[in-house]
Amino acid sequence: MEPLNAIKGVLFDLDGVLYIGGKPVEGAMDAVDRIRNAGLPCRFVTNTSTLSLASLQAKLGSLGFAVETEEIISATQAARLYLMRQGDPVCRFLLAEDVMQDFADFRQSDTDAEFIVIGDIGDAWSYRLLNEVFNCLMRGAKLIAIHKNRYWQTEHGLQMDIGAFITGLEYASGAQTTLMGKPSADFFAMALISMSVAACDAVLIGDDIDADIGGAQQAGLHGVLVQTGKYRQAYCDASTIHPDRVIPSIREFPDLLGL
Ligand SMILES: [Mg+2]
Questions:
Q1: Which domains does the chain possess?
Q2: What family is reported (predicted)?
């Protein structure tokens, strides 16, 4: 396979690339080390919205990846920065408990929110909750989605993600969603700016052909798809998105970069 030459910065998707569930992907640590030792700046980009920045760093550390918080670009972090630019808004957060600590400074209301922020709340979804959010949207609240993923891979198989709930709320209310995580171009721009690397000199490695590869390519980066995590061959064969390279796993990534 033709190597990707002259890459100056690397974005790693986390789940499905570095680890699956609670286990590191074989060879992932060595691959990250080789890339770091070559002097390439790295960012760890994730749509995961169940963990605060501190917890994400701790999780990566426990799996053997030593990462600074400044190197982690999470979709919830992007949402926090976005809301801070909106003055002092009243918000309703549908977010995992651990992430809520990153949003404790904001004013909150279940009924009079100006912004509704939706992330992962596991099986807390119900018709009643969807209807409450729907009514807020009908009163003019703005909808912010941490991501709009279709599904993700767990140790127990594929699980339906929040994308379908967001789409359902948009359909019912006519609201337009502001998307925070991948594939939003703003999200990739934030990562590139923090590394001072131009999009055309950067590569993302991910397991999600839509949010990772499609988003990266749309933002001008190279996109390398791994066949671990949520990768499904039939889904990718039918996709209109064409990754720059497809490799079995992150283990082959340093070779691909000519390192
Ligand atoms: Mg992933």
A1: 9-47+182-256 (3.40.50.1000), 86-179 (3.40.50.1000)
A2: Belongs to the HAD-like hydrolase superfamily.
